[in-house]
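Re: export button greyed out
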Amino acid sequence: MVSDRTVTQIHGAALKRSLAGADLKIQRWTSLVPGERSKTLATARALYDAWIQAGADRGSVVLAFGGGVIGDVAGFAASTFLRGLSVVHVPTTVISQVDSAVGGKTGVNFEHAKNLIGTFHSPRLVIMDPDLFSTLSERDFRAGWVEAVKMGITLRRDLFERLERDTERVLVREPALMEDLVATCVQAKSEIVGRDERDEEVRAILNYGHTIGHAVEGAFRGRLRHGEAVAVGMNAAAWLGEELGVSIGDVRERQNRCLGALGLKLALPGADKGVIARNLKLDKKVRDKKIRVVLTLQIGSASVWPHISSRLLRTAVRVVTS
Amino acid sequence: MVSDRTVTQIHGAALKRSLAGADLKIQRWTSLVPGERSKTLATARALYDAWIQAGADRGSVVLAFGGGVIGDVAGFAASTFLRGLSVVHVPTTVISQVDSAVGGKTGVNFEHAKNLIGTFHSPRLVIMDPDLFSTLSERDFRAGWVEAVKMGITLRRDLFERLERDTERVLVREPALMEDLVATCVQAKSEIVGRDERDEEVRAILNYGHTIGHAVEGAFRGRLRHGEAVAVGMNAAAWLGEELGVSIGDVRERQNRCLGALGLKLALPGADKGVIARNLKLDKKVRDKKIRVVLTLQIGSASVWPHISSRLLRTAVRVVTS
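Workaround output, generated via the alternate export path:
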């Protein structure tokens, strides 16, 4: 069992009762420091140590109970321990339920580059319960929906239009709506991952907003939620789409209005442009020194643009940091 | 390019010429300290750093040029960098050509347990040239053939009988024989790996001699060649086969005579039995606290015995350390 201190404190007792009721034995419960700073190789080493002490073997199962950070780092450690233990995800946050718990990507950060070290390791099972959202902070809750907006913008016009229309019902955490939106996102994500698990073709579309988003997130070293950074990256990507004449109609305007209604900032005046530019060079999506960026053609349809010039990208960074 | 200082010194210039002739550009050449002590997470981190500095991206290829240690650690780092770079193995030793370069297992040691951290990551290409054996030390050359004897004992009677009959021709490194034996081993290994890549069933047979072998190797902390430890482990496994009445005929006697003719020690008087016993508990093959051991029924045929008692295993350790 891998969780963080906050999740353990709020939901630990209930999960322990539930597992005991099912006669499942917890060999070891590890509670990490909450937040991005736990997503390191040092944490993976600490998990290896804990699992050795607990006598884990190839038949042991790692249960990742928490948000995206817990899923990523526990998934990475599990995928590399004894050449791969089975993983069950119980995602507790909006972002991990609508996005990261599906698809098998694991990762830790390395020298400020997000997910530079990682594997593909599909979970055996993912258990989603949107009731868990009730204990999330307003900030985490709002930032989590950015990935859902992204899926709507790039893949599912109907999903985007629901988020656009029902923003207020989302913000009051209406239970039936939560369940429905999570199911729609999981379905959209699964369909893409099923076609391209290893992120070589169509899955790349899910990186919309993430090229500049990751660079921004790295520059802020844990002071931004992932969704907050991606919202800024999506604004930059939409700007690029307009600038290059790729986007049709009011994509940027509607996207940004929806993100704004969810309470997200679209720009970060005063951010360190130099650090962001350096982080961009370490991006996994960089190939042969040309930067690939996902651009939206119209709402619900996006495509990978392989040859964005560094100059234009720097201008996009300027747009969202001024 | 990942190699070690010895291999780089002896064969580096030739390989550089060869790659330049094929118009292949080396972004970065990393030469590690030779030997098992380079098989660590710290080395993987150093490779990540080198690859970041060299500007590696998802299209980069890692060429592992060396013996089993280089293949294991370079393969591990490649499999976890940007969620997996392509790997080409150019194995330079007997053991890596007859065994480790085929099958996609990667690994680093962790707290004296061999390969505790690792992945499955198949190479795109393996280039074998037995001419490289000519520069191996006598000790490395002899120890390398242990894995070939193991494949003969457990899977291919004809292979074992050739090694038994042609030991002297092996020891003078007769070129045509080297090529032929390497090809036979690669074929035997590929066939097993093709049936069970993730080591869940039949591939486990290749662990013959490795349960106690790994524990012994860990106890000697780099002072034994892998093959030397496995030879001792094979002696212990053959003793268990006899003790349990599983082996038919003169398996142990013929196996040990062949290993002895190759110059391998079959026992290590004075080894630390306590450390070996502790290492056994960390073995990847341990499941639900029962130790699984591969036993030979007759030459060319082996099977996994799932429930060997700790007491009997300790006796086997005593047999090979007295």
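The two ends of chain A are 43 Å apart (CA to CA). The button fix ships in the next patch.
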